[in-house]
Structure formats: C-alpha cells, structure tokens
Design goal:
alpha/beta; Rossmann fold; 3 domains; 8-stranded mixed β-sheet
Amino acid sequence: MAFEGLAEKLQNTFKKLRGKGKINEKDLKEALREVRLALLEADVNYKVVKDFISKIKDRAIGYEVMESLTPGQQVIKIVKEEMTELMGGTQTKIVFSSKPPTIIMLVGLQGAGKTTTAGKLAGLLAKQGKKPLLVACDIYRPAAIEQLNVVGKSLDIPVFSMGNNNSPINIAKAAIEHANSNFKDIVIIDTAGRLHVDEELMDELKEIKASVSPTEILLVVDSMTGQDAVTVSQSFNEQLGIDGVILTKLDGDTRGGAALSVKAVTGKPIKYAGMGEKLNDLESFHPDRMASRILGMGDVLSFIEKAQANIDEKKARELEKKIRSEQFTFDDFLDQLQQVKNMGPLSDVLGMIPGMNSKKLKGLSVDDKQLEQTEAIIKSMTKGERINPSIINASRRKRIALGSGTKVQDVNKLIKNFEQTKKMMKQFSNMGRGANKGKFKLPFM
C-alpha cells in the first residue's frame, strides 16, 4: 500500500502528541526527531528532510501552538500544510494548446513504464472528451511498438507507427500531420528509454523536442526506486527541460521518498500517479489529498470520485436501504466485492476513509483468484445461510467447504470478513446520515 511504512510511523508519532494538554519544546523536539527519522527511512532526500523539519519547527515553536487548547492537533495541521506544499501545494494539470493538437512527449528510463503510462494517459484524457493519438517512437526496444498497439487496441485508441526502420524524429513529425488530418486533439509520443541517462538518449530526445515543439514534456519515473527516481528527474530536467512528472507504481511504494522529494529537488510538479497495473489505474496527483492519506486523515474526495466512476448508483441506493435495515446478506457482499474490486486494492480504497486502521484492512484485499473462491463459498451456502450467517455452525462450515472445494479455514475467514465489512458498511451509512446535518456526503447516500 502506498506510503504504508511512513504513514504508520508518522501516525504513531502524532498519536502521542494528541493526548497532551500542553506541548513544550522538549515534546516538540522529540516528535520532530521521530518525523525526521521516519522521512529518512522512507528514502526522502536528506536536504528536503532538513528544510521540511526546519519549517515545521519555526512555525510550531510559537504562540499558535504552545498556547493552543489543542496543541497536538495544531502541530499535525502544520505538518499537513508543509507536506502539501512539499509535494507541490495544489494539483497541477496538463496545459492544453490553444491550437490543437496538444503534443505530450513522454520521456524516461527503460523499465519505468512509459508505454503503459502512455496508454493510461490516453484513456484518461479520452474519458474527458479528448481525441488522443498514440505515437510509437521507441524503435529500439524489442516489441515496444507491438506493446503500444496492444494497449491502444484494448482502449480503442488509435496508434500511429512507421515500424522500426524510420527515425523517431520522422515518425513524430509524420504523426503530427496525421493527427491534424484526422482531427485528433491530443498526440502522446512514446519515446525510447535507456537503462541509464546517457548522451545518445538525450540527443535523440532533444531532436524530437526541436522537431515537434511539444506542449508538455512529462517524465515517467518508477517511484519504487526512491532516491534514484529523484536523481533521474533532476538529470532529465537539467538536460531536456521537463514540465512535470508521472510517478508509476506508487501503489507499491511503501516508503514514498520519490513523491516527497521530486518537486522540491526539480521544481517540477507531479501531475499523475500510477496506482495499479490496470489501464485505468492512473490518477491526477493531488498534494493535499496525498498528505491527508499519509497522516491518516483519509481522502474522502478521491474515495467519492472512485465510487462514482465504478459503483452502480441504483445498486448503491438499494444497498444503503439494506444496510440501514440490517438486511445486508452474503449475496450483497459478493456484489459489493465485484464492484469495489474495480476501484483498486480494497485496503487502499478503504484507507481513504478518515479513521480507518490500515492494519485491519490488509486482510480485505481482493484479487481475481480470491474473488472466485469467495463466489464458490457463497454459492455453496443455502439461501437461509446467505441471509442469516449466524446459523452457520461447525457442520455447516464443513459442508460449505466441501461443496466449494475449499478448506474450513477459508470459510471461517470469509465469514469473519463479511462481519467486518458489515460493520464498516454500517459505519459508512451512519456517516452518510450525518450528511443531512451539514457534514460530508458519501456517494449515492
């Protein structure tokens, strides 16, 4: 889960501060020491950490915190504000050309995920009403053109290619002409990468840049490489001049060093983050929302956006009625798992809800194999057992396990997860009721 290690350490540190009626300089110094260590362990750039801690200290040692009725909360508020600023302050969107097409040039090292990201970005922009064209300019990596064609076909987005025998510069120029004559308003150029930054790579990218004058040059970097990602970003920016960064594999980055360092080191914003392997797993990067997630404050806005994009509204309304009348059944549970699965890893999604304990959510992750097993177990239950799981005794559990080709332990685990989900759904429903009293509103409630 993204930032898991860092988030846990920071949340434990601030939990100690929350309980204090007053905070002195010694308390603050100890807390900031723990924050500093947590950030360094998360592979955040040393200078970035030093400046970050200094800013918090300057703001926290003063009347605003020391004389506050809730000093712990004030410190956390300062940390959130500074962390948001560290990652860019506000969301930075793609700049679209006033005269189409908008040309987006994706650059980066080999293995960072440029080709897949090109498809993800095209798909995201297509949902916004744009007409993208993917351009295959990586003529060196084996099967790179074929990979882009497969990605484009699965998204129903056209791909422009001229094979491996033309220069990337000629391909890029021809692609712009093709886009103009076929009324495409976005051109996404997938360029070649290398295993490391070298003169040959940069010269070719500079030539492409000079020949097509891209509206945006976006650097694709693997967030899991930590400080290497920051070093690569700095090098590309100095030699090529980039407009923004796309962090891939952020869902698997338990440390978060790249996300917290890139903007401060390069001065260039993170515009998108890859949050999974699927072609719809690309999100706009919101510094304030990411800071909230790291500090355990949740991310309700992203949760709502994901839910609205993936959950059937009519079914959600029906489910709400069932939850409030305590009629939530195993059939409803299976239907919800299938819908929530489309939103991404369950632990990540539920982690967006304020107050959710990420440790307790780890066992609720859902993959295809697990979903098939869950479906088999539920379908091996009688109608009465699905409606009222409390009647499922030891002998019934053995029968269900035998009928589903699973073990009794699997049946026990599913029943436990069902009860946990039922409680969480009830909690969400109560939060939804609060919306009528001026609080935030959960999707479709």
